[in-house]
Specification:
Organism: Naegleria gruberi
Number of domains: 1
Keywords: Signal
Helix content: 25-40%
Number of helices: 2
Strand content: 35-45%
Largest sheet: 5 strands, antiparallel
Number of strands: 5
InterPro entries: Cystatin_sf (IPR046350)
Protein name: Cysteine protease inhibitor
Shape: elongated
CATH topology: Nuclear Transport Factor 2, Chain: A
Structural class: alpha+beta
Length: 119
């Protein structure tokens, strides 16, 4: 009797752990999707990317996705549609770092462009 009940409890515990693993969408320490970014945040990234990438991508037409990771500040991966200097539409992914407020030195931009890739 004891062996059957302990086996049943063990199976129930394994099933619960499997359900938790399959439904967990956020990996601790990893990037998470910003499902409904505010208009203010979209405008902030559009303006920032437009100013930093103007030579290669004169127009940023749309922010498609924003992912964020909390580090010593926030690291963002922003996927956007852009028009390159040849007039071709490209999908780009930019990595942008926003340091903690106390870590920003005088004259330093609040946002820092770390990397840009064409997808």
């Amino acid at each position: 009797m004891f062996q059957r009940s302990s086996t049943a409890i063990l199976l129930l515990l394994i099933a619960c752990l499997m359900m938790i693993g399959f439904t967990s969408a956020v990996i601790p320490g990893g990037f998470s999707h910003n499902k409904k970014p505010s208009a203010k945040r979209i405008a902030k990234f559009t303006s920032f990317l437009s100013s930093k990438l103007a030579a290669k991508y004169p127009t940023i037409t749309q922010i498609i996705d924003i992912q964020q990771q909390v580090v010593a500040g926030v690291m963002y991966k922003v996927t956007a549609l852009a028009i390159d200097s040849n007039g071709q539409e490209k999908t780009i992914k930019a990595t942008i770092f926003e340091p903690l407020p106390h870590a920003i030195q005088a004259g330093q931009s609040k946002l820092q462009l770390k990397d840009v890739k064409e997808l």
